[in-house]
């Protein structure tokens, strides 16, 4: 059995705690605000790994605390990817262990693979315009979601005609539009739509509740303890 710190004790943090305890692991520290670090620091240091689902504003400082003390880290927080290069560089230079990802649902990662395959098929079908649409609960801090950005980036990597993504209502010849909706308590709906004058092709993933994300994060944490390194969750998700 392993010892874990949970960083971020919102709905995801509570779901992760429930799964860990159900598997007979120990949660030795729960960090939800700055003062918790001082109060629970010694317990944090006894962790085999930390699982972090916090906010874009606090994520990087949380990462660096884990890196500074050689605590393997799993993070599902998004909204910090603009600083990805320096975060990964610090992690590498300090020989740390880190899994990050925009979506820890196994089903969503199958969806990522399907999205990439479909985009590859569409590279020669210029009659189709593509958009990405995401819908989440009204308390989600970042828009578009990290999952939607991952989908758009994958499309751009496969479609020669697309150069970038943009938060907007409609795509242009070189830009993939991402539409972001915030409605009630939606766990997450992502849709990729290819439209032509003749027909429409839709690829869609709907998360019914947060348990799927939490289960994927726990699986990743247990895997990471035995496999040091730096990983994007989408590159290892289907091997768990």
General description of the model:
This protein has 240 residues and is α/β, with parallel strands linked by helices. 40% of the residues lie in helices and 24% in strands. The strands form two sheets. It has a six-stranded parallel β-sheet with strand order 2-1-3-4-5-11, with helices on both faces. Strands 7-8-6-9-10 form a five-stranded mixed β-sheet, covered by helices on one side. Helix 6 runs parallel beside helix 7.
Features:
9 helices; 5-stranded mixed beta sheet; 6-stranded parallel beta sheet; 240 residues; alpha/beta
Summarize the structure.
The chain has helices at 11-22, 34-39, 41-45, 56-68, 84-93, 106-122, 146-158, 211-226, 233-236, and strands at residues 3-7, 26-31, 49-52, 73-75, 98-100, 129-136, 164-167, 175-182, 189-195, 200-206, 230-232. By secondary structure, the chain is α/β, with parallel strands linked by helices. The mean pLDDT is 94.
Q: What layout of secondary structure does this protein have?
A:
Layout: E1 3-7, H1 11-22, E2 26-31, H2 34-39, H3 41-45, E3 49-52, H4 56-68, E4 73-75, H5 84-93, E5 98-100, H6 106-122, E6 129-136, H7 146-158, E7 164-167, E8 175-182, E9 189-195, E10 200-206, H8 211-226, E11 230-232, H9 233-236
Parallel strand pairs: 1-2, 1-3, 3-4, 4-5, 5-11, 6-8, 7-8
Antiparallel strand pairs: 6-9, 9-10
Helix pairs in contact: 1-8, 6-7
Cα end-to-end separation: 18 Å
Number of E-type strands: 11
Mean pLDDT: 94
Strand order of the largest sheet: 2-1-3-4-5-11
Query: What structural class results from the helix and strand content?
Result: alpha/beta
**Major β-sheet profile:** 6 strands, parallel
Overall, the morphology is: elongated
Percent in strands: 15-25%
Order of helices and strands: EHEHHEHEHEHEHEEEEHEH
Helical content band: 40-55%
Radius of gyration from CA coordinates: 19 Å
Number of helices: 9
Give the low-pLDDT segments: none
